[in-house]
Amino acid sequence: MVHSEGDIGPATTVLLRQIPAVNELLSRSALRDLQARVGRRLVVESARRALQRLRDRIVEGSLSSVSLAALEQEIAIEAKAAASFSLKAVINASGVVLHTNLGRAPLAREALEHLAQVSTSYSNLEYDLALGARGKRDAHTDRLLGRLLGAEKALVVNNNAAAVFLALNTLAEGAEIVVSRGELIEIGGSFRIPDVCAKSGAILREVGTTNRTRIGDYAAAINERTRVLLRVHPSNFRILGFTERPSLEEFVDLAQRHNLISVEDLGSGCLVDLSPHGIRDEPTASASLNAGVDVITFSGDKLLGGPQAGILAGKREPLERIRKNPLFRALRVDKLTIAALEATISLYLQGKPQAIPALRMIQLSREAIHQRATCLAERLSTHPQFSARVQDGDSVIGGGSTPAQSLPTALLAVTHSRHSAQELERLLRQNPLPVIARVEQDALLLDLRTVFEEQDEDLLRALERIE
Ligand SMILES: *Cc1c(COP(=O)(O)O)cnc(C)c1O
Predict the structure, then answer these.
(1) Which residue of 33, 298, 301, 426 sits 20 to 30 Å from the alpha carbon of 248, by its own alpha carbon?
(2) 200 lines ligand 1 (CB under 6 A)
(3) Cβ(156) to ligand 1 under 6 A?
């Protein structure tokens, strides 16, 4: 003990003597039950810490009695918190469909079922059942992606950043890559195209200007060291006004005439035409492959709506070289990802993209959202502390897609008689099932586009808990 009892008064000494021993505490019935639920180790650790805090408070003189009941409660709260998961489900009422902080795309139920089945059992991950011999894990996704995208070959790695890195490292290490200055972007989490090029061992030749790059700018930079022409989807930003960028066809044609490999980082990996939903400037993977791009890369958990992954697809020759890169092994995906990705892609092939939550949410009409918001507003208004109304607003796709375009939505705007909008936001965030909302102009705004319909009741309950 830090303090010797000689320095402190007699009242403190009496209190210190009332501190129970750890074993005495653990044998009390409430803590015995707790040990049965969360295990002995977490309860013992919480008890030790609670006793230390108690001792400190007594010595500080900020405690006048020792309450075993209070002590037990403190230990129970701490041990339960330690036993609970850190990563947990939240309700996304932010209206950002592919929210990078909230795990991007939620998986389809079909993906989860396939993942559960394959991963809780043995599987043919690297076993060719027809031949009874060792197989490649690539086989499972190569077949489906090839069919879906019309690609000669496809590979899957950990994420799109890894896909870009692996492509550039394989195809241009020690050589030059030509890229437009208007595409030298940074994606969240410090993925910067110039840095990735540098780490891949390639030399970057920047051409053109931020807002205008012509095909002649690329052509003028090509020399005997050039290996790759790189095109990058500007993702999370747009340059408006006086802009110019070569067409895909011009880009591919120039690469082919100079025997160079064309690589396109598509970012989002949009596989379906979203123009009926007002999203017009999102390039699709098949448009790039049809135009003749040699290698495209995109994410699995953005517009594709699957697990985190990076997909490389295109011509057989460059992809086979990428597959042989020793770094492929370091960046490859595990069976959980393969299972979830295979099931997600299969939904596209079966013509059921609406089974993919992110795509379903993007396609929800403002009217359908308005109806749900109105229903919640009416039910919330029966509580005198709340006032709720429905107002027009915008949802966004997020994940670096289509920054200039939004989806019209209906927002549930909530105010409370005692709490500010900021406090409401915090209380919802700290709900056992956390709700992520936005605050604008002193109102709490909830966008039901990104709330699963079956979560509307949970959302209402989270609000009703706020007194
Ligand atoms: C999102 C994005 C990346 C990074 O993809 P991750 O799957 O997050 O690694 C790379 N390039 C572009 C253009 C992107 O939009």
Answers:
(1) 301
(2) no
(3) no
